[in-house]
C-alpha cells in the first residue's frame, strides 16, 4: 500500500490551481469537470510526475470550513511539503507575496516554515537532514 | 493585583513559553507547541499549552492578537515592573556611601 492521493479543501479551485502551479511550482495532473462547476483537479510535483497527487477539492461540506478555520486560527498546517532549502524557499515565496505565519525555524534536525495557501489552508514546508 | 503574576511565573513550563516568545515575537499556538516539543522535549497537549497561555494572558504577560484568520501571541514584560517597584534594588547612593 502507498499514498496515492491526498487533498486540501480550497475556497476556489481556479484560484487554487493558480497558486499551486504558478506560485508553488506544481504541475496539473488531472483536470476533469465533475458536475456543474466542480473539477477533479489534481497537481503533482514536477520532480515526481507519477508520485502522490494533491487533490484541490472544492469546499463543499459546511463542516470542512469550520474545521479548517479552527486549524488556521491556531496556526496548524494541513499538509507538509518537502523542499531542499526552507530558507531559500521562504525568501522566494515571500518575494511572490506569500504570507508566512511561521518563519523558518530550526527544530532539532528539521527546519520548517508555515505559509497561507490563499485558499484557506496553512501549509508547512520542511527540509529534512540528508 | 500581583497574585496572577506570581502564579503565572511560578510554573517552569510557562517560563519556557515566555523565553520562547522573547526569542521571537508573534507566534501561533502551533509554533509554541512545536518549540516546546522539539526544543524542550515537553510533550504537552495543545490544550495544555492553551491553558498555560490563558494564565499568562490573565497576568498580562502575553498578548494574543487576532490578525485576520490567524492568532499570534506576543510577550508583554510590562507587568514585571510591578515586581521591581515592590522590591526595588538598593539605592547605590544609599546611606552607607553618604557621609
Automatic annotation (TrEMBL), chain A:
Xref: SUPFAM superfamilies: Glyoxalase/Bleomycin resistance protein/Dihydroxybiphenyl dioxygenase
One Pfam family cited in the UniProt record for this chain: Glyoxalase
Domain VOC: 2-128
Domain of life: Bacteria
Ranges annotated as spanning the membrane: none
PROSITE patterns xrefs: VOC
Name of the protein described by the UniProt record: VOC family protein
Organism (species): Streptomyces hintoniae
TrEMBL record, chain B:
Domain HTH arsR-type: 1-95
Organism per entry: Streptomyces griseoviridis
Name of the protein described by the UniProt record: Transcriptional regulator
SMART domains linked: HTH_ARSR (SM00418)
Pfam family, one: HTH_20
NCBIfam families: HTH_metalloreg
Transmembrane segments: none
Keywords tagged on the record: DNA-binding, Transcription, Transcription regulation
Gene Ontology molecular-function annotations: DNA binding; DNA-binding transcription factor activity
